[in-house]
Amino acid sequence: EKGGFKHFMAKEIAEQPVVLAEAIQRGVANGTLNLPEDMDFSKVERLTMVACGTAYYACVVAKYWFEKVAGLPVEVDVASEFRYREPPITPNTWAVFVSQSGETADTLAALRFCQGKAAKIVGVVNVPTSSIARESDIALPIRAGVEVGVASTKAFTCQLTALALMALKAAQDRGRLTAAELAQYIADLSALPGLVNQALLIAPEVSRVAKELAEAQDILFLGRGPLFPLAMEGALKLKEISYIHAEGYASGELKHGPIALIDAHVPVVVLAPRDALFEKTVSNMQEVMARHGKVLLISDAAGLEEAGMGCWRTITMPSVPDFLAPILYAVPAQLLAYHTAIAKGTDVDQPRNLAKSVTVE
Ligand code: F6R
């Protein structure tokens, strides 16, 4: 059932090109977006997005997308805070709940709080028969297929893909996209599964670095813009399966505290495609190196040529359109966690203290 792989997690990481291709094929038809008919964003004034764990990080990425391409304000919260805070829901707000299992107790409770208050409840779910799917006004399936590994991998990239399609639909409905721009986004999306395939080829390099990372007590992950949530996701994944303490920070927050941790024993993983904010991230990286921090820079060839010098280790990613970078950079985040856990000999598919579906709060 593991299809020749040692772990479900490895199988699920490897399945991503195929499941993403399927999700994109279903979400795009005849060169236009193909989302549920009642998903019309023209009168929506605000999104409130709620989830837990990895699904929450997918929401944080989506916030950058919705705000940038659709000009739609987005509030994001973890379900356990949202549900007891009981925030006011303004008119024409859509409430979006993202959950692989569709059964997470806090997310479901947050959804129920929004029933009758939000203009529409959207569930972005993997399990189509789940409570969250059933109780949503619009259930948007992510179609990742069954995910067995406790650490979420393909569900995360499929959540991101579904949310990217939603953000493009919102931009279209709100008159923010020309036909040519939409066509370009769709072409870029269609090329994504191929890029993910290429990114998977970094596995041997990652496995070498992971043997060294496995010696660390603490690891920092840095990212900026839509790569900031990927830094948090990379840290979460690593904690979950290798039990190494890791934290994800927005690169610009480094000097507001975490830089005090930097010494020659703390590896710092920097997720930084050569995008518009690259220079800013590089200067944060240099601050780490000036304090003898060990930087692992994960970037594309252009980024590494510009800033790879002096880094402890580098990993070369395919170059990718900015919009899709957070989806592609999920791959190194997953592989780093996986191979570090392998190096430590932990139980990758069934990490201690964790359950696949958290149905109690
Ligand atoms: C991380 C992980 C958890 C889940 C979280 C939400 O790898 O698996 O953080 O993402 O428990 O679960 P769902 O998406 O089922 O609501």
TrEMBL record:
Keywords assigned by UniProt, alphabetized: Aminotransferase, Cytoplasm, Glutamine amidotransferase, Repeat, Transferase
Keyword check for Transferase: yes
Catalyses which reaction(s): D-fructose 6-phosphate + L-glutamine = D-glucosamine 6-phosphate + L-glutamate
GO biological process, one term: carbohydrate metabolic process
Protein EC: 2.6.1.16
Recorded GO CC terms: cytosol
Domain (SIS) ranges: 35-176, 209-351
Entry keyword annotation includes Nucleotidyltransferase: no
Enzyme class (EC, first level): transferase
Subcellular location: Cytoplasm
GO molecular function: carbohydrate derivative binding; glutamine-fructose-6-phosphate transaminase (isomerizing) activity
Catalytic residues identified in the record: K356
Subunit structure: Homodimer.
Chain's role: Catalyzes the first step in hexosamine metabolism, converting fructose-6P into glucosamine-6P using glutamine as a nitrogen source.
Protein name: Glutamine--fructose-6-phosphate aminotransferase [isomerizing]
Name of the gene this protein is made from: glmS
Full-protein residues shown: 244 to 604 of 604
